[in-house]
Amino acid sequence: MLALSANQRYLIKTIPRVESKQLRRMLPRLLAHLEGKSGTSISCMLALFRVKWVRLAAPQASKVYITISEAAFPAIPGAAPILFDLKGSSVSRTGRRTSGEAEPADKGEDGTLGVLPERTILKDNDLRQALCDAPGAQASLLSWEQDTSSICDAIARDAELLASLRCMDYSLLVAFVPEDAAAAQEYQQQLEPSYYLSTRVTSGERRYIAYCRIIDILCPWSPKKRLAQVTKIALGKPPDGLSTAPPTAYKGRFISFVAERLFSRTQNTTPALRES
């Protein structure tokens, strides 16, 4: 089950028992990390509940584990961000339409990255395609206005923590919010009190604020995950492209993708974004 609160600020989600155990095990270190003075992009977890009920026909009581957390980004009318969900992997990492059909992101005639209205989110391969296919002159149309080293370092610290806690399969969710949108100020005000890393970026004549947040942090590396990895490799999937990877390998690829592809420390540029 997955649901949003009435004000769409909080996410209510059922999780398996293994993830509830993982949360309780990692809680002391996670709390210390979130309360630290250094910036963090990890999504804030607010509560964990265990709901237990007895059915007459069942010999044992049923248990359901429920978490309450801040929604990654609030839904505000008039402020429609361009969203990327990034893991650093490549297998099944292309944005999907609401119909479920996977297609690469559309590009405009000028080499910019177009976003179809029915596509809810873009993924790693969409970003890779834009970076590889964009002409050199267009690749500089989106430039980070501030030094992104501190953001890359904060995300790297978050990934180091998650790897030490045996976590994998987490994502970096990045929202590009148009700064000149009518609801942009309200959007920024709602995001201010939360754990967010943000920076300004220019795309052509448009300015955006990019907000970053790491989500889905409760998936532990386990024998079941290892079996899934082996099975996918046996089916011909490239090992270095799988999201199912040991924590240390996952962390290294994740940090590298964020620093070298998204924020591009060497060029500090990505191709221009275009809203549809």
Automatic annotation (TrEMBL):
Q: In the UniProt record, which is one GO cellular component term?
A: plasma membrane
An individual GO BP term: phosphatidylinositol phosphate biosynthetic process
Keyword ATP-binding attributed: yes
User: Where does the record place Basic and acidic residues bias?
Assistant: 98-110
Q: Which UniProt keywords apply?
A: ATP-binding, Kinase, Nucleotide-binding, Transferase
Q: Check the record and name the InterPro entries matching this protein.
A: PInositol-4-P-4/5-kinase_C_sf, PInositol-4-P-4/5-kinase_core, PInositol-4-P-5-kinase_N, PInositol-4/5-P-5/4-kinase
Task: List the protein's name.
Answer: PIPK domain-containing protein
